[in-house]
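Board notes (copied after class):
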Amino acid sequence: MTKVTKSDQEWREQLSPMEYAVLREGGTERAFTGEYTDTETEGVYNCRACGAELFRSTTKFHSHCGWPSFYAPSEDDNVRLIEDRSHGMVRTEVRCASCDSHLGHVFEGEGYATPTDQRYCINSVSLTLQPQD
């Protein structure tokens, strides 16, 4: 995967304030407010910051958590997983492997009937959807 490196100023010029807060500062959009939370359009979800492919609609499922949920990335090396000990919790942060933007978190063992028993809980503002032709 091609690495994308930009200065903080370049990211600020490219992204809206909300996109910057989530993608570059690790923020979170409010639950049930994102444009892709309930979307069922078939296609590919790319990183909003750099355009790298991250997820496919075939792995998206309704988890009713308030954010788009996927049970696997399109390729394991398209995302980077990092231990996150913020806010008094231990979680696994999901980042774009290409530009290191914050996407959300991945959770395991929650009992969803998915092939991986994982829930990639991703901020809509971190994604763009490229609908299938």
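Comment from the instructor: Residues 39 and 68 are 8 Å apart (CA to CA). The longest strand covers residues 102-108.
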